[in-house]
Amino acid sequence: MIAVFWPMNALPQNRTPSVEPQEWVAYKARFVREDGRVVDDANGDISHSEGQGYGLLLAWLADDRAGFEHIWSFTRTRLMLRDDGLAVWKWDPAATPPVTDPNNASDGDLLIAYALALAGRGWSEQRFVDSARQIAEALAAHAIYDFDGRTLLRPGAVGFDAADRPDGPVVNLSYWIFEALPVMAELAPEAGWESLGQSGVELVRAAAFGDRKLPPDWLAIGDTLKPAEGFAAEFSYNALRIPLYLMRAQDGDMELLRRLRDGIAGANGGVALVDLETGAVKEELMDAGYRIIQAFAGCVLDGTTLPEDLRRFEPTVYYPSTLHLLSLAGIREAHPQCL
Fold first, then answer.
1. Given 135, 163, 172, 191, which is the most exposed site by the fewest CB atoms within 10 A?
2. Who contacts 96 (Cβ-Cβ below 8 Å, separation ≥6)?
């Protein structure tokens, strides 16, 4: 079983927040509206279950209970609308009605349930734990399944199974929130969470495409592993989170982490987005929130000190800013010697 920072039975009583107050204040001011809506400002100011889950997790890491309550209020009243207990994934303020796609996104559900569980236990708030359990049970019922000897995670409840696609099933390996899985196992023990974690790591190992040996954003699992039809065959904005999630979960496979770290390396120190068919670098991402993933890996693999500019958090746009704080929190919790 992959480790997790705060197992439900071992939460610290007087923990030091791993997201610093000034960092969280800056993040909230930029991306969290007064009603608790987390805004993806590079994507038309929409909100989504992923963003609400990240917001809840960061609020917990910053020990901001009032902020957590606001984000959960929006999430609970605006996204938790499906009959199956999962969240709708997309909320667009420019649309009427604002829910423009009622399918769920399982990474968002995992993040929401994980944050609720940690906050509920840490702040002794049973209603958070109860809500986390309901979501974990819904994921167990509708998103976790076995296929060809593997336990898999549906990216959404609809549209990704073998019956839905000629190359199916299709998964997104960046939806495996590895650190959340042991907590989900406590909440809904009937599901195969440990097997899910193992299959996720195994698939990351196996999905080594092109010269850089990188996984695609969307992976088809049929007779053979391959980039999924209908999606660009590329390592891109989804998959770049995979090494971060492995490091935050304290996965011990250093060979895999080194392969990923080396594969994503851009020529100028950024993260390379790669066309897996041609091997061409389509773009190199230089935002600090992307570059810190490389630096985090250097810390874990080689004990390399984090560069000074990456130790300072200044919000840019939603996605890399979120990854920046999650990386800083992970380093402070498990690798403070690298700061």
1. 163
2. none
